[in-house]
Design goal:
24 helices, mainly alpha, elongated, 416 residues
Length: 416
């Protein structure tokens, strides 16, 4: 299985918490600091209610203020923040829009709207609002940060980096800005640049478990597995209930072929995120690496039951069945994998070699040629031998040669 299927970079976790924390605590532009401080004092009671989880009471209090003064833009803004914190996103956006309508110059209303749209997976709407926030507050680092995040979500990394650069220029001590830019570099495959930004972010905020994790991912992609493991360990020590970091501890051990230790980490991940098919497949790969094909088949089968369209689960289960000598089951799984993913050269190769080993030379040659066409490296000796056997019209009873042993070792390596 390709590792790119499961790599996830985090610029944030728990979006609602960050909505609340970001909008109350950080990136306050100098030009609006005084008015925000005044309103912070005015609404400190609301904050105390939220801190004590009295959300309904906070909403009730703010609604009463709005009824008393329908033009109180800050009451709408703060009610929007509380609604966002509660997960009432539609109500929050309505409140932010009302705040902007009652005070079109209130940059924070557009900022809040942009952030929320971004977290809801609507980067285009986010950019519209963040553009307005920047127009009103050209030195608002938060607006550049979140607009960079939105452009990154749209795959526009060049523009995203420009916004992160501007945010860092305005807030040079912001760990979040460096981490955000590092994530863009990582997604572009510029892992060395990403690590430089993560290093700064960690120096500024050594308790940020997300940044330790993200740097670990960058090291992982550079195959610096010991460095990656140290960062994943640190992320887990800071936040033990972080399944992605625990999973990547398992992945790092898996790549180091320390399968028994990797299984411990995949078990821990499974405890936190039950029945994740990707975790099950990699744990199955570890069992296969330990020459326990029965245990591997059990994990692959559960993954398939959860996600019947998971081609790689069928492919790997086919490999495990073949290890057990169950040829018909192996062929069936390879065929299913190929049906689900017509670009799966690995399964074409595996099925071709298995056909070759049982003497079905025509089918073998067809599969091996297809694997080559899909970019899979197939031994010329194997292709020539298969063609010779087909030409001679031989059928069953073939004995594997040393070349076949090489093919088998390739197919039964712990990773694809």
């Amino acid at each position: 299985m390709g590792d790119d299927m499961v790599i996830v970079l985090f610029k944030r976790l728990f979006p609602v918490i960050i909505i609340f924390g970001c909008l109350f605590c950080v990136f306050v532009p100098e030009s609006s600091s005084q008015i925000i401080l005044e309103n912070a004092d005015k609404y400190e009671f609301i904050r105390e209610l939220v801190d004590s989880q009295q959300y309904v009471r906070a909403i009730h209090h703010l609604t009463k203020k709005i009824e008393d003064d329908p033009l109180d833009s800050w009451a709408f803004l703060w009610r929007g923040k509380v609604n966002a914190f509660m997960g009432n996103y539609s109500d929050a956006i309505d409140d932010y829009n009302s705040a902007a309508r009652t005070d079109p110059e209130l940059a924070e209303a557009y900022l809040c709207t942009g952030i929320l749209y971004n977290l809801l997976g609507e980067p285009k709407y986010a950019i519209v609002n963040l553009d307005r926030a920047i127009e009103l507050e050209p030195r608002n680092a938060a607006a550049y940060f979140w607009r960079g995040d939105a452009y990154d979500e749209l795959g526009k990394s060049v523009i995203a980096l420009e916004d992160y650069d501007r945010a860092i220029e305005l807030e040079p001590d912001s760990a979040e800005c460096y981490m955000g830019r590092g994530c863009v570099y990582s997604k572009d495959g510029k892992f060395a640049y990403a690590i430089e930004d993560y290093n700064v972010s960690i120096r500024l905020d050594p308790e940020n478990f997300l940044c330790w994790y993200n740097r670990g991912i960058a090291y992982y992609n550079l195959s610096k597995l010991d460095n990656a493991m140290r960062d994943f360990d640190k992320a887990v020590s800071l936040y033990p209930e972080f399944p992605q970091a625990v999973f990547y501890k398992g992945m790092t051990l898996y790549r180091k072929e320390e399968y028994a230790k990797a299984i411990v980490q995949f078990d821990a991940t499974e405890d936190m995120v039950p029945n994740d098919p990707i975790v099950l497949v990699y744990r199955g790969n570890c069992f296969l690496g330990l020459q326990k094909p029965g245990r591997a088949i059990a994990d692959y089968s559960i993954a398939i039951r959860i996600d019947p369209e998971f081609a790689e689960a069928y492919a790997n289960r086919g490999r495990a069945f073949e290890e057990k000598g169950e040829v018909s089951m192996a062929l069936a799984d390879y065929s299913k994998a190929i049906d689900l993913d017509g670009e799966d050269g690995w399964s074409c190769y595996n099925r071709g070699v298995l056909y070759y080993e049982i003497g079905a030379f025509k089918e073998a040659l067809d599969d091996l040629k297809r694997a080559v066409a899909l970019g899979y490296d197939v031994s010329e000796n194997l292709l020539e031998e298969c063609a010779r056997e087909l030409e001679k019209g031989k059928g069953l009873g073939k004995t594997a040669s040393s070349d076949d042993d090489d093919a088998r070792s390739t197919r039964f390596s712990p990773d694809r």
